[in-house]
Design goal:
The strands form nine sheets. The protein has a four-stranded antiparallel β-sheet. The longest helix has 40 residues. α5 packs antiparallel against α11. The protein is 32% helix and 19% strand. It has three domains: 141 residues, Adenine-n6-DNA-methyltransferase TaqI, Chain A, domain 2 (Alpha-Beta Complex); 92 residues, Orthogonal Bundle (Helix Hairpins), CATH 1.10.287.1120; 143 residues, DNA methylase specificity domains (Adenine-n6-DNA-methyltransferase TaqI, Chain A, domain 2). The model has no long low-confidence stretch (mean pLDDT 90). By secondary structure, the protein is an alpha+beta fold.
Length: 413
C-alpha cells in the first residue's frame, strides 16, 4: 500500500484524508512592528500593550509578559502598529523562533513579523509554527543581528487540515499546555513555601517542638532548648590539604545552581591544566566549599556540601569541614540567605566586581544558628521532605514536556 505523505502519524479517528500543502503566505497576511521613542513621554504609559522579543516565554505559546504600555498617539506617530487579536506573533530577529498567540490587540517591536490568519485557527497555526522552528532558523541571515524577513515566511511550506480538525488539535494541545503550566505553578508554589518557611525558621519566628513533626509557634509539646549562635571557626576546621605528587585528577567545581560537580562532567572537558594540579585543595565527601564568585543565583557566592567522592578544587575556593552538627541542617542553612549579611560586611569585592574578597579570619567569624541536635535533625528532615516534593514536581514537568514534544512531532505532518 502506498504511503500517503500528507497525513500525520497520530490523528483523531473522526478525521481522514490528506492535509493540504500551502505556502504560509497563502494562509494570512504579515504585519511588522516598531518601537516608539522612549524619549517621548506622550508615547508611553497608555493602555495598549507593547512587547519585545524578551517578553515571550519559550515553552508556551500563551505566555507573554505585558509590562509596557503605549498610547494611541504612539501608534499614530511611530512605526509601531496595532496587531489584531488572534494573530501569531513570530520573532524574526533577536530571539529568532519564539512563537506566541495574541488574545488581545497589542503592538510589538520591530523584532517581530506577525501573521494575521485569513480563516485558519490561529492556535493551530501557532503550534504548527512551533514545530517548524528549525525551518525558521534556516532562514537566519546577517552577522551581528541574525534574522529573517517576511518573504522567507511567505515561502515556508506548511500542511493544513480542515478547520474542524485544526480546532480539535488546537483544543487538545491547549489542554496539554494548561496541564504543564499547572505543574509548573505547583512547583513554583512549593519553592515559595520553602523559601517562606526557611525565613521564618532561621529567624526563629516559628519553631519545632519535640513531640510532633509539624511546625508550631505555640502548643502543648515540650519546647526544644534555646538556639545558640556559634562562629564557623568554632564548629568547623579549614581544609588546606594540597594535591601532593599530582595524584588526584578529579577536578571539582562549585556551581551556584548544581552544587559540587565534576568539572569534566559539567563542562564536557577539562578546564584545569591536568599537568599542574599540585596547588589544588583536596576535597573529601561531606566537606563544604565556598566559591567567592558572585552571580545572579548566588549574590555572595555559593557554599555547597560535597556529595561526590574525593577530588580537588582550585585554591580560590575555601574548603572546611564541620566537627559537629547535622550536616543536612547546615546544608539547608547555607541554601538560605541568612549568612549573606556577614559576607557583605566583610567583603570589599576586590579588584573584580564578580568575586568576593575578604580576610580568611573574617570568613570564619561567620555566625551560625545552632539549635539542639534533635531540632536540627527535625528541620533537616522537614526541608528534605519538601525537596522531595519539589523534585517530584520537576520530574512530572520533564515527563510531560517529553510527552508534549512527542505529540507535536506525531500530530503534524
Amino acid at each position: 500500500m502506498e504511503k500517503q505523505k500528507n497525513k500525520p502519524r497520530l490523528r483523531f479517528p473522526e478525521f481522514g484524508g490528506e492535509w493540504e500543502r500551502k505556502k504560509l503566505g497563502e494562509v494570512g497576511t504579515f504585519l511588522g512592528g516598531g518601537t516608539p521613542s522612549t524619549q517621548n513621554i506622550e508615547f508611553w504609559n497608555g493602555n495598549i500593550p507593547w512587547i519585545s522579543s524578551s517578553d515571550l516565554i519559550d515553552d508556551s505559546i500563551y505566555q507573554i509578559r505585558m509590562n509596557r504600555f503605549i498610547t494611541e498617539n504612539a501608534v499614530s506617530n511611530s512605526a509601531t502598529k496595532i496587531i489584531p487579536k488572534h494573530s501569531i506573533l513570530i520573532v524574526s530577529r533577536v530571539g529568532v523562533g519564539k512563537i506566541a498567540v495574541s488574545e488581545v490587540e497589542l503592538c510589538t517591536s520591530q523584532d517581530f513579523t506577525n501573521l494575521i490568519p485569513t480563516r485558519d485557527d490561529h492556535i493551530f497555526l501557532a503550534y504548527l509554527l512551533k514545530i517548524k522552528t528549525n525551518k525558521l532558523l534556516e532562514f537566519n541571515q546577517g552577522t551581528s543581528i541574525k534574522g529573517f524577513v517576511k518573504s522567507d515566511l511567505e515561502s515556508l511550506g506548511v500542511e493544513i487540515p480542515s478547520l474542524p480538525e485544526q480546532t480539535k488539535i488546537a483544543s487538545f494541545l491547549t489542554a496539554v499546555d494548561e496541564k504543564l503550566q499547572s505543574l509548573k505553578k505547583k512547583k513554583d508554589l512549593l519553592e515559595e513555601f520553602k523559601k517562606g518557611v526557611m525565613q521564618k525558621l532561621f529567624s526563629q519566628e516559628i519553631r519545632f517542638q519535640d513531640d510532633t513533626s509539624t511546625l508550631l509557634s505555640a502548643g502543648n509539646g515540650k519546647d526544644f532548648p534555646d538556639w545558640e549562635m556559634k562562629k564557623l571557626g568554632e564548629v568547623a576546621i579549614k581544609r588546606i590539604i594540597k594535591n601532593k605528587d599530582n595524584k588526584i585528577k578529579n577536578v571539582f567545581t562549585n556551581s551556584a545552581l548544581f552544587g559540587i560537580v565534576n568539572q569534566r562532567d559539567f563542562f564536557d572537558k577539562d578546564i584545569a591544566n591536568q599537568n599542574n594540579l599540585l596547588g589544588y585543595y583536596v576535597v573529601e565527601k561531606d566537606d563544604f566549599i565556598y566559591n567567592p564568585r558572585i552571580s545572579k543565583y548566588a549574590p555572595v557566592g555559593p557554599i555547597s556540601r560535597n556529595h561526590l567522592e574525593t577530588g580537588i578544587m582550585s585554591p580560590l575556593y575555601s574548603v572546611f569541614r564541620f566537627l559537629e552538627g547535622d550536616l543536612k541542617y547546615l546544608e539547608f542553612f547555607f541554601s538560605s540567605t541568612f549568612w549573606y549579611k556577614h559576607m557583605e560586611d566583610i567583603s570589599n569585592y576586590g579588584a573584580r566586581d564578580d568575586r568576593m574578597s575578604f580576610l580568611t579570619n573574617d570568613f570564619y567569624e561567620m555566625p551560625i544558628p545552632y539549635p539542639s541536635l534533635p531540632e536540627q535533625t527535625k528541620i533537616a528532615n522537614f526541608f528534605s521532605a519538601l525537596d522531595e516534593k519539589i523534585n517530584h514536581s520537576q520530574a512530572q514537568i520533564e515527563k510531560t514536556e517529553i510527552w508534549k514534544k512527542g505529540l507535536l512531532q506525531r500530530m503534524f505532518v
